[in-house]
């Protein structure tokens, strides 16, 4: 499959800069909201036909260079013994969060081919429907970010419970991350077997850690996940608030390192090293408007990269629900036109 996105992951020359968006399917799209009137988020994630439909919605609407599997980061928690639900207006809620080392030892192992068979079936359906128009990105959550939901029970601002367990019970913390890394390696491998063309590891909240803590508590586990899938498909490593740990993340792995808007992309690329590809880094709130500011900031990012091979355009985090669809359309078109190679 020849694709701008896959070429950029491998730092090969491209005709124009590839672009896709985290949360490119979601509440900002009227066709998604229509489907959500009849089905919950988990209904959609568990029905391969619905997950396929939602994955394809942005492909029909936007000039994007990749599709991302529609699913959720938290799905593997349930078969590990941590059931959860999404509460309207509040986000995810784990029924009985991890409180002690004993809770960690009670977690279960599972086979993704059995417990998450519906996700793998969705991948096969999506690949058929896409017919190689654009590649499909699979994903899973990284140990720190998944552990934070399992321990906090939902979203957190300071990760106080997570860090207390990490500092207070380091051995139990490493056992938890070992289990999560086993899961992530097996789940990503199963997604690759089912047909995804690239995989992204989401460590959305790992920017809460210092470089020293990242090295001690996270890096060995993340490294093991990337080693498990090495050489099979391109890998992307994503986080937010990570300006101070980009070098450590690079060491942990990933052919492509995600960068958010808090650091200029060229400075980030220097820290990561020019022998890796980068993905980013427009602030998602710029898509709320006005469009001229969004576009001038997109031009600034493109100018900093100067068409060097190995840049994938994306936002620093997901599209916000109140984003006008037209702004997303304008941005995707603009990035292609403005980065067209002579
Ligand atoms: O288009 C895509 O990016 C693919 C789909 C996708 C979803 N979740 C669907 C979803 C992906 C890649 C995710 C990953 C995910 N899920 C992450 C990591 C990425 C990130 O944003 O940092 C995290 C932290 C989660 C957990 C989660 N799921 C949260 C915190 C929420 C927000 C709750 C809220 O009300 O905003 C969700 C819900 C969720 N997952 C939505 C979507 C489209 C919201 C839409 C809905 O309620 O219908």
Polypeptide structure, described:
By secondary structure, this protein is of the alpha/beta class. It has helices at 4-9, 30-38, 41-46, 48-61, 101-105, 112-115, 117-130, 143-152, 160-168, 170-194, 211-229, 246-252, 265-272, 291-305, 325-339; strands spanning 67-68, 84-87, 91-94, 136-141, 198-203, 235-239, 256-258, 277-282, 311-315. A 7-stranded parallel sheet has the order 1-4-5-6-7-8-9. Strands 2-3 form a two-stranded antiparallel sheet. Helix 11 (211-229) links the parallel strand 5 and strand 6 (235-239). It is globular, with a radius of gyration of 19 Å. The mean pLDDT is 98. The structure holds coproporphyrinogen III.
SSE blueprint:
Layout: H1 4-9, H2 30-38, H3 41-46, H4 48-61, E1 67-68, E2 84-87, E3 91-94, H5 101-105, H6 112-115, H7 117-130, E4 136-141, H8 143-152, H9 160-168, H10 170-194, E5 198-203, H11 211-229, E6 235-239, H12 246-252, E7 256-258, H13 265-272, E8 277-282, H14 291-305, E9 311-315, H15 325-339
Helix pairs in contact: 4-7, 8-10, 9-10, 10-11, 11-12, 14-15
Bound molecules: coproporphyrinogen III (CP3).
Coproporphyrinogen III binds near residues 24, 70, 92, 139 and 318.
């Amino acid at each position: 499959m020849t694709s701008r996105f896959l070429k950029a992951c491998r730092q090969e020359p491209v005709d124009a800069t590839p672009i896709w968006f985290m949360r490119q399917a979601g509440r900002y799209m009227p066709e998604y909201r229509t489907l959500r009137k009849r089905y919950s988020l988990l209904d959609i994630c568990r029905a391969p036909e619905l997950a396929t439909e939602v994955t394809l919605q942005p492909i029909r609407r936007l000039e994007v260079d990749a599709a991302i599997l529609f699913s959720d980061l938290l799905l593997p928690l349930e078969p590990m013994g941590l059931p959860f639900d999404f509460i309207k207006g509040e986000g995810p809620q784990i029924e009985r969060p991890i409180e002690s080392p004993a809770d960690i030892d009670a977690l279960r192992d599972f086979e993704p081919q059995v417990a998450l068979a519906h996700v793998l079936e969705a991948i096969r359906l999506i690949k058929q429907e896409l017919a190689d128009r654009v590649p499909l990105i699979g994903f899973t959550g990284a140990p720190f970010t998944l552990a934070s939901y399992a321990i906090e029970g939902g979203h957190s601002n300071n990760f106080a419970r997570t860090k207390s367990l990490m500092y207070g019970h380091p051995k139990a913390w490493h056992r938890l991350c070992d289990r999560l890394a086993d899961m992530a390696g097996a789940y990503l491998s199963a997604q690759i077997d089912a047909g995804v063309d690239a995989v992204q590891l989401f460590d959305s909240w790992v920017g809460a850690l210092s470089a020293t803590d990242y090295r001690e508590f996270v890096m060995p586990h993340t490294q093991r996940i990337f080693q498990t899938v090495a050489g099979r498909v391109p890998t992307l490593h994503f986080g937010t608030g990570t300006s101070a740990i980009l070098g450590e993340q690079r060491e942990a792995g990933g052919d492509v390192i995600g960068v958010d808007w808090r650091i200029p992309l060229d400075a980030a690329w220097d820290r990561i090293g020019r022998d890796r590809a980068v993905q980013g880094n427009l602030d998602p709130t710029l898509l709320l408007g006005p469009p001229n500011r969004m576009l001038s900031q997109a031009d600034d990012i493109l100018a900093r990269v100067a068409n060097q091979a190995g840049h994938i355009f994306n936002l620093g985090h997901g599209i916000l629900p109140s984003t006008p669809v037209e702004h997303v359309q304008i941005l995707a078109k603009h990035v292609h036109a403005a980065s067209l190679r002579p």
